[in-house]
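STRUCTURE REQUEST FORM
Protein name: Isoprenylcysteine carboxylmethyltransferase family protein
Source organism: Stutzerimonas marianensis
Requested output: structure tokens
Priority: standard
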Amino acid sequence: MSALDNRVPPLLVVCLIALLMGLAASGLPRIELAWTARLIFALPVLTLGLGVCIAGVLSFHRARTTVNPLQPQQASALVEAGIYRHSRNPMYLGFAIILTAWALVLASPLTLLGVIAFVLYMNRFQIEPEESALEALFGESFARYRAQVRRWL
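Status: completed
Returned output:
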């Protein structure tokens, strides 16, 4: 158990990493693309990321369980329907896709390291503790779900 386990809201992690990516981009090599070209590439990726996040939230609301990532032990249902048939963590997947869109806007390939940092952080400090809580709550049902559905994609 770490002091960071389920302590930092994932949206705050996204914002901090996006800020660091933006700051880093000013000193990193860039691909020379016009602003409109960057947007043409980034907007569909951003739309996909937002859609994946929203699908995750809607699935939680349909199951009438908490979406609070800092209190996974308060989950009242194991959500396996909707987008959760394809990813155990669609909201975090959506955030990673949104960060990828931001990297496209920044036009600096090295800023993609921010997406990797996000995934590594979420795996260790958010998802692992969440999955421990879900296993304690839902036992074999969660173990079976975890065996059938991938963590990210």
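Reviewer notes: The CA atoms of residues 20 and 114 lie 8 Å apart. The radius of gyration is 17 Å.
Form closed.
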